[in-house]
Amino acid sequence: MLAFKTAKYLVDKAVEAGDIYSAAAVYQIANIEQRVLLESIMFGKRRDALVLARWEYTPAEVLNAICIRCLGDAAIALRLDRNQNTPAVAISELYDVERRSNNSLTVLIAQHQHTPNKVLEAIVEFSNDIESLKAVSKNPAANTHVLRLLLNRMVNSEMNKVIVKNVAANPSTSGDLLASIYEKGDTTTRVVVLGHVNCPLFLIDLAMTNISSAPLEIQRQLAKDNRLNIEALSYLSVSHDKAVRCGIAANLASPSVIVKRLLNDESHLVKRALATRADLSTASIKRLMIDKDHWVRQWLARNLMVSRKVLESFTTDSHADVRRAVARNKRCSTRLFAVLANDENAWVRSAVAYQKNATKRLLEVLANDADVDVLSGVANNSRTPQWILQKFIASPEADIRRAVILNRKAQRKTLLPLLEDSYYLHRLILVSSAKLKESDKWLLCNDPDFQVRFTAFHYFAKSL
Amino acid sequence: MKILVAVKQVAALDEDFEIRADGKDVDEDFLLYDLNEWDDFSLEEAMKIKESSDAEVEVIVVSVGPDRVDESLRKCLAKGADRAIRVWDEAIQGSDAIAIGQILAAVAKKEAPDMVFAGVQSSDQSYASTGIATAAYLKWPHAAVVADLQYQPGANKAIIRRELEGGMLQEVEINCPAVLTIQLGINKPRYASLRGIKQAAAKPIEEVSLADIGLSAGDVGADSSMSRVRRMYIPAKGRAQMIEGTLAEQAAKIIQIINEFKGA
Question: Hey, is B130 helix, strand or coil?
Answer without folding.
Answer: helix
